[in-house]
Amino acid sequence: MSVLEVCNLKVSYSAGGPQILKGIGFEVGSDDFCAVIGPSGAGKSTLIRCINRLVEPTEGDIILFGQSVCPLKSGELRRLRRRIGMIFQEFNLVNRMSVMDNVLSGRLGYTGAFRSFFKAFPKEDIDRALNLLERVGLQDHVDKRADALSGGQRQRVGIARALMQRPEILLLDEPTSALDPKISRDVMGLIRELAAEFKIPVLCNIHDVQLALETCNRIIGMQDGYKKFDGPAKGMRKQDLDEIYAMEVL
Ligand SMILES: Nc1ncnc2c1ncn2[C@@H]1O[C@H](COP(=O)(O)OP(=O)(O)OP(=O)(O)O)[C@@H](O)[C@H]1O
Asked: Which ipTM was obtained for this model?
């Protein structure tokens, strides 16, 4: 069953400006852990950001959980975004807040303004946050400030925060770009493990092709705003990669 359908998606950042996405179409199924790869500037990040309308599509449609995303007004869009977990390259943590509060902030979309202001989270949320922090290996860092952690640990907080909202899809935008190769593998392995356990489909913009092939079951290859490849990671040949990266100037 498909969770996400992207139909003939086109994006220009300004009227009359260059077209960044030139008619992209694909579906993501409930079991997919799908990487989006391609050279710098291919439009990978733009594509991921269109799905929750951080970037506004110019043409085409995005159907998420059976609902068209493009016409949603702000309240409906907010409700839809609660169902989407995002993990970013820059972690997007609040540095001066504790690890625990950063994770709990994943529930803010669900908590009333009064409760949020006084940080009065239900016990159930606190238990869940502690449990997730243990799952990502940060049980000994719960009360530390976020800026006291290493990059890999910060991204683990980002993972716990995204899972805190019980997302029905995870969108990852270069989640390992700021990390060294060993930590990147650990972080991607952890995301894969947790996504499988919680049965959450994943769409992931990722630079590191080798890591994408190791971690993801499906690859979408983009080049200059077009989809060039869509298939199982296992079936991908060197020739497919050469075609996707043919235009890259090193
Ligand atoms: N906010 C923006 N306004 C105008 N142009 C933008 C904006 N964001 C991205 N672009 C342009 O869109 C094109 C695609 O960028 P995008 O970040 O989606 O590509 P990418 O494949 O993710 O690249 P990279 O791997 O280098 O991050 C680039 O030419 C970029 O300059």
From this structure: 0.97
